[in-house]
């Protein structure tokens, strides 16, 4: 079975943790342990988030006196792909002796006229108290918004139109290689209609939507979106909270889900299932094997399966 896995940012850096390399390595080791069992008998493509990492690099870049201007988000996105991809690839090689693993920097084409450029919504970086966040917004020209536990920077998040390196990923899969790609949603670029030339843009693409698009382009059998909760829940965080276990795309999207966290995951899962007729699921990282085998998580099925 061909499985595209989308690792949430919590798999790499938990809320409140220091963004030290050793901390991220320990979290990656945990993620790889959860995925190794799946990799034994399946083709895997692993994507990952980069919100905390790109936020940290953007902060460092903005404060670096050696630079005349901060590095743009597309360049920082490429840096995070290289860093996180290397850590994942090394851990996967250790967990899967003899298995070929490659971390591939990939680019995601977006539309230059995407309305998301006028409405920044994608959270990046750490959580701040309100006063600190507003001070940083004034100082650095940031857009900020309230997250579930505080205030964070938000940046444009245009919809992914295509992954430039899809054919390369297919060739690697056909050769038996486990591929890490699409990190942080891929490096956001626009493509010239006449020349095909790629130009980086100041944005961060949602990694779950890119994973769904990549899964569709790769003709994957399963899209597995891993996060820090066991299921999608209705009325999350209230006494009425209930797990959603088995749904169609329409039923999933009919739920009222938090816009900044679970809603994009639900939209990605629903879009992949609607377009491919295959399966998707959302659940906890440590239960990855159980989710694919139907004993954990929220399973999203095609509508025809409910005849």
Concise structural overview:
The chain is 37% helix and 23% strand. With 307 residues, it is α/β, with parallel strands linked by helices.
Describe the structure.
This protein is of the alpha/beta class and 307 residues long. 37% of the residues lie in helices and 23% in strands. The chain is built from nine helices and 17 strands. It has an eight-stranded mixed sheet with strand order 3-9-2-1-12-16-17-15, with helices on both faces. Strands 8-4-10-11 form a four-stranded mixed sheet. α1 links the parallel β1 and β2. α1 packs across α3 (73-95), α2 (51-63) crosses α3 (73-95) and α6 packs parallel to α8.
Task: Please write out the topology.
Layout: E1 2-7, H1 21-41, E2 43-48, H2 51-63, H3 73-95, E3 101-103, E4 107-109, E5 122-128, H4 130-140, E6 143-146, E7 151-155, E8 162-163, H5 166-174, E9 178-180, E10 187-191, E11 198-200, H6 207-217, E12 222-227, E13 232-234, E14 242-244, E15 246-247, H7 249-253, H8 262-276, E16 279-284, H9 288-292, E17 298-300
Parallel strand pairs: 1-2, 1-12, 2-9, 3-9, 4-10, 12-16, 15-17
Antiparallel strand pairs: 4-8, 5-7, 6-7, 10-11, 13-14, 16-17
Helix pairs in contact: 1-3, 2-3, 6-8
């Amino acid at each position: 079975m061909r499985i595209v896995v989308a690792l949430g940012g919590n798999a790499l850096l938990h809320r409140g943790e220091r963004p030290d390399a050793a901390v991220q390595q320990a979290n990656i080791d945990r993620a790889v342990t959860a995925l190794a069992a799946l990799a034994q008998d399946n083709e895997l493509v692993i994507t990952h988030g980069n919100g905390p990492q790109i936020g940290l690099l953007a902060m460092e870049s903005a404060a670096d006196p050696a630079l005349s201007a901060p590095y743009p988000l597309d360049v920082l996105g490429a840096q995070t792909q290289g860093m996180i991809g290397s850590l994942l690839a090394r851990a996967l090689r250790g967990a899967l002796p003899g298995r070929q693993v490659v971390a591939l920097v990939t680019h995601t084409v977006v539309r230059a006229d995407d309305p998301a450029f006028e409405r920044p919504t994608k959270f990046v970086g750490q959580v701040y108290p309100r006063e600190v966040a507003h001070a940083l917004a004034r100082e650095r020209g940031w857009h900020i918004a309230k997250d579930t536990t505080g205030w964070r920077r938000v940046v444009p998040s245009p919809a992914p139109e295509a992954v430039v390196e899809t054919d390369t990923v297919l060739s690697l899969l056909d050769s038996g290689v486990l591929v890490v790609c699409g990190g942080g949603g891929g490096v956001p670029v626009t493509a010239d209609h006449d020349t095909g030339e790629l130009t980086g843009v100041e944005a961060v693409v949602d990694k779950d939507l890119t994973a769904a698009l990549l899964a569709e382009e790769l003709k994957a059998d399963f899209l597995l979106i891993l996060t820090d909760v066991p299921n999608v829940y209705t009325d999350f965080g209230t006494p009425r909270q209930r797990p959603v276990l088995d749904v169609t795309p329409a039923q999933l999207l009919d739920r009222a889900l938090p816009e900044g966290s679970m809603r994009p995951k639900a939209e990605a899962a629903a879009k992949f299932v609607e377009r491919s007729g295959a399966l998707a699921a959302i659940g906890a990282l440590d239960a990855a094997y159980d989710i694919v085998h139907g004993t954990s998580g929220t399973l999203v099925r095609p509508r025809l399966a409910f005849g």
